[in-house]
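Submission sheet (multi-component)
Chains listed below:
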Amino acid sequence: MDKKKLTNDIILIGSLLVLAIVSLVIILTTRNKSNLIATVRVQNQIVLKIDLNKDEGKDFVVDGINGQVRIHVKDGAIAVTESNCPHQDCVRTGYVNQTGKPIICAYNGVSITIEGNSSNDIEV
Ligand SMILES: [Zn+2]
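Outcome: structure written.
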């Protein structure tokens, strides 16, 4: 009798576990499909909105305060690929596809922030 109860418990726990994993997979899959929009600002003025899904493989050039900044979209991520700034921090940041991780070129007054439609992350 007790053994049967134990088996039932194991089945119940197992089912719950499977359900939890399935839910998690659905949540993660849905999240990945959310549209990520990169907002490019020059001195806090929005100059470009880039859809990281639709603008795959595209190049953008932004006029910063001290020169041009080249932006590239690849695999749903965005990066500064060229800039005339002395420290090249923006170029070294590399490809970003997460909200709350901005790319900043202080020299050119350029900032790139990523915003997701269904994301609860804090906006910078
Ligand atoms: Zn820079």
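Remark: The chain has two domains: 1-33, 35-116.
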